[in-house]
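Notebook B, p. 112. Complex prediction, attempt 2.
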Amino acid sequence: MADEVIYEARGVSKTFGSVTALDAADLKVHACEIIGLVGDNGAGKSTLVKILSGAHQPTSGTLLLDGQERRWDSPADALEAGIETLYQDSGLCPDLSISANVYLGREILRPGLLGKLGLLDHKQMAVKAREGLEQAGIGVAGGSRSVSKLSGGQRQAVAIGRAITWARKLIILDEPTNHLGARQSAEVLHVMKRAKEQGLGVIFISHTLPHVLEATDRIVVLRLGKVIADAPTSTFTPDSLLKVITGLAGT
Amino acid sequence: MSTPQADPMTKAGGRSNRIAEIFARQDVILLCVLIVMVAFFTIMNPLFFTSYALANILQDFAPVMLLAIGQTYVILTGGIDLSVGSALGLSGVTCAMTMRSMESGGSPVAATILVGLLVGVLTGLTVGLVNGFLITKAKLAPFIATLATLGAGAGLTLVITEGVQVAGGPTEVITIGNTTYLGVLTLPLILVLLVLGFLWLMLDQSRFGRWTYAVGSNTFAARGAGIPVKRHLVKVYALSGVLAGLAGVYVYFRLGSGSPTSGQGQELNAIAAAVIGGLALTGGSGKLSGTVLGALITTSVLSGLILIGVAPNWQQVVVGALIAGAVALQQVDFAELRKKVTHG
């Protein structure tokens, strides 16, 4: 927890026409820390996530990675810098295999001339995808199976495993426990903690407050585009957190 | 994730094997359809099963196959390219007009043919790039964008030819286009088969192919994984355009003249081949092997119908029926699959 700040948003705003979706939001993520980002629908969570991951550019405000001001023109820039984002329900290509998904956008090409022609090294990707997933605490049999044949929980496991495999600084998980059963959710939380132990910063967005209270170190509450609370998780109770989110209590 | 999930995974494995078997059988089903059809037409008219008829079918197959390869890539991204027929017609006449004017200007035959070929292909490429631009920059739906270029391309072809066949050009063209080896193969046909092999390999084995599937399977995930989705779409539509250009050149070599109407309705045959071959119009799923069989089925039906005495005017009616039938069958399969996945 005493680790350095790895990623920071300073006074980040985003307006769409006359609508202010995000209003001068501040957010700091330390290494080895899980942040819970919560808020009601329309509070600006998605907008903030999209800015942090490079999908949107902020109207004003700055992003700092390792203390240096950065600007992402596309999600690819943020990925390159070590920031992985797992979007709600849509992180994978269902028609592709597990290992193809893990290596999507980062395909390993064959050595030599064949690689220069863009030919894929299927074998190496299969082996390495399996290793990566295992290291993230996810055991998946049959990496050549198409993702469309996996259950919701298994898909989510692969998606998170993929993000952890590639993240060098930070992973952003948008509703990773959505639509999952109790046991599968617990596994997701476990994998998240493991990522934190490996030195990553984690931003966990969820509507499921018990999950947030269980897994996070700090909670940031957004309401109507503003950060209205940012405090260690231990200072919240389920009741007080709900009140802050719904605007029934200040901090 | 760790051990607790091992069990459901293995179960899913068994289920997926069964589904995989059904999918694997799709090729087999198509092959059976083709064999039954060939048998039917041969019984109706024994001429159907001769090397002469086969050469004819392959000659018809080649341009349809070129368009259908492009269509396969495009449909895998979740789009559609209606402009390929128009692009074929336009490329054929620009190629023919170039060769005619170079020939009358006294250029050497080899140079004339090469430049003509290049102009035809570049014409197709231009149509493809316009499609890509309309879809990624002007944000038109692929259906609308390529419908627009279908209309514009067909119109432009009539404008520059004034609706008249572009005859003339080197006589070597028609010789190259119609000299057969081993009874059935022509030089252009061999080139088409090489293009097919190359693009087959590219779709199955290269990063370009992988990204094509990814974009159609889940555009959002593809973008999130850092794939330059828009640039990739432009490339795919450009590829489809280039193939249509090649098809235009092919038809010119076969007929020895550029016909302004040669591309009419060809998009229908290309889409039919892809859809009969089992490509999902929603993108992300399907194989080029299916499209090849689909193209063989489409062209054999058309030749077969002529050989058994059905008037050529019925051709498009039959192709339309084939598309409707193939898509309907696909939907039956999907409904069953879904049931199996959820209840199985």
